[in-house]
Amino acid sequence: MKKLFACVLAAGLSSGLLLPVGAASAQEVQPIDRIAAVVDENVVLKTELDRAVANILAQYAGRENQLPPRDVLERQVLERLILLKIQVAYAQGSGIRVTDQEIDQAIGNIAQQNRISVEQLRQQLARDGGTYADFRTSIRDELLTQRLRQRFAQTRVAVSDAEIDAALAAQANSGTQYHLAHILVGLPEGATAEQIATAQKKIEGVKALIDKGEMDFAAAAVRYSDSPNALEGGDLGWRSLDEIPNAFADLMRGMSAGQVTAPIRGPSGFQLLKLVETRDASQAAPSMVTQYKARHILIRTSDTVTDAQAKAKADTLRARLAGGADFAEVVKESEDLNSRGKGGDLGWFTQDEFGPEFGGAVAALQDNQISQPIRTPAGWHIVERTGSRQTDVGDRNRRAQVQETIGRRKLEEEWNRFLREQRGEAFVDVRIGKAAAADAPAAPATPAPSGG
């Protein structure tokens, strides 16, 4: 069951429900819960922090020596929880909402992926000392932060044709991909000269530990990095050159697998970058894809229209179509204003353009066949597939892939900057032990060679 909720890692960290933590039974007398941190108008409870730390300890069972001391680990986990609270509050303040139906669907998907029922999921949560209500809350928070990130990408990230052209030219000369990891010693906005000097001394100390072989890179990242992925050993995954900032890309070209850069000063602080390995990815993007043409009717849910009411209306419209009603007439009741004026026509699209639920349903239809009502995050759809074709989209597909990878790189940079800004503007009062001292603006201490 350790992999049960891997797809909602951030939510699991928040709720502390992924693994057993030996919670007391409901019949026992419970002490008054302490506040670990105040985050604007929200709080992180000490029990939340303890459960989240227990999850990390369980995941590192047998490898506890790779973790930092307990107080440092608590600080890292608490910072994640603080950032989660900030993101959820910002999302809600921006008008982003998640319906109960969407939470139910996400939980159902988790259960299905792990080949258990939702009831078995409830039982697992109870055995692990958690509650189903807390788990639903963690899923809601995860969905809110995902949508906030998606909205952020749509409004703040743009990729120009010139950038795509340059990336395609670079790909033509090199099909290499790079597996990277990093260690970050963060600096606040407007860092003082003393803070910069202390951070530089710390990153140099970490580099010295790695060079002497006293600690491997992943263990050093877990212990010393300020990056959100510190507990994953600083792993950044596989990247092509167009997904790597230009300053780092130039370095990668001259490095061998296993090498670690000298400390690099960036916008968020000092970094060490490791080239873990390389691979040849010089494969042309597939040129032939299946496209579908369809028209649809959409009935949305809202604060005043329940999911059941929307489904009932969709069933009624589907029955009218089955009885011989003209689609062009029934579509006038569609709530998709963009397509309604075109008779519900969506044009030609690939299976993944409108999400997995919609695309999967269209792919399963025959041409000129009308679906039963389909549930997606947008609402209930009735779809008629009006055509399908194999299309050569070689150049367009390659450009779209390059645009996506550049956009992903830009999003990561802008998103991290946004989180730093929100963290800096938020009122955060850390109230537990050494974590409180670690949260102070003073620069981090230089690591001791003992690694303790």
From TrEMBL:
Pfam families: Rotamase (PF00639), SurA_N (PF09312). The lineage of its organism: Bacteria, Pseudomonadati, Pseudomonadota, Gammaproteobacteria, Lysobacterales. Chaperone involved in the correct folding and assembly of outer membrane proteins. Recognizes specific patterns of aromatic residues and the orientation of their side chains, which are found more frequently in integral outer membrane proteins. May act in both early periplasmic and late outer membrane-associated steps of protein maturation. GO terms for biological process: Gram-negative-bacterium-type cell outer membrane assembly; protein folding; protein stabilization. It comes from Lysobacter silvisoli. Residues 1-26 form the signal peptide. The gene is surA. PANTHER family: CHAPERONE SURA (PTHR47637:SF1). It is found in: Periplasm. The PPIase activity resides only in the second parvulin domain. The N-terminal region and the C-terminal tail are necessary and sufficient for the chaperone activity of SurA. The PPIase activity is dispensable for SurA to function as a chaperone. The N-terminal region and the C-terminal tail are also required for porin recognition. The keyword Kinase does not apply. One of its GO terms (cellular component) is outer membrane-bounded periplasmic space. Keywords: Chaperone, Isomerase, Periplasm, Repeat, Rotamase, Signal. GO terms for molecular function: peptide binding; peptidyl-prolyl cis-trans isomerase activity; unfolded protein binding. Residues 175-277, 289-387 form the PpiC domain. It is an enzyme of class 5 (isomerase). Its main location: periplasm. It comes from the Bacteria. Its EC number is 5.2.1.8. It catalyses: [protein]-peptidylproline (omega=180) = [protein]-peptidylproline (omega=0). This is Chaperone SurA. InterPro entries: OMP_Chaperone_SurA, PPIase_dom_sf, PPIase_PpiC, PPIase_SurA, SurA_N, Trigger_fact/SurA_dom_sf. Gene3D superfamilies: 3.10.50.40, Porin chaperone SurA, peptide-binding domain. SUPFAM superfamilies: FKBP-like, Triger factor/SurA peptide-binding domain-like. Coiled coil: none annotated.
